[in-house]
Write a structure and sequence with these properties.
The chain is mainly alpha-helical and 99 residues long. The protein folds into 2 domains: 58 residues, no CATH class; 30 residues. It has a two-stranded antiparallel sheet with strand order 1-2.
């Protein structure tokens, strides 16, 4: 008899012990867990995609220039009123609208 998910026990085998695939060392592995524990199953494709995204993120972070000086300059221009001009408003509106 397979009791399945009776009373929230999850996937239980014939010997009444929980059966599942666990995560061991960050890779999908077969394993067991205690009743009530969490299990994450990550496919090889999912792990590969994560690794690629992580590598691209690290590459972009390493290549990104420090933009603090650019932000400070923009803030100063805003505070000074230099950008309070109808020509600037129109230019910004066109960029926002994709024109």
């Amino acid at each position: 008899m397979d009791i399945g998910k009776i009373q929230g026990l999850g996937n239980v085998g014939r010997d009444h012990t929980p059966r599942s695939k666990g995560v061991e060392g960050g890779r999908g592995q077969s394993g067991t867990r205690a009743v009530g524990g969490d299990v994450a199953n990550i496919s090889d494709s999912g792990r590969s995609t994560f690794d690629k995204v992580q590598a691209l993120t690290e590459k972009l972070q390493a290549a990104a220039p420090d933009r603090a000086d650019l932000i400070a300059d923009a803030k100063a221009r805003l505070e000074s009123g230099e950008l309070d001009d109808p020509v600037v408003y129109r230019s910004v509106a066109e960029k926002l609208l994709g024109e």
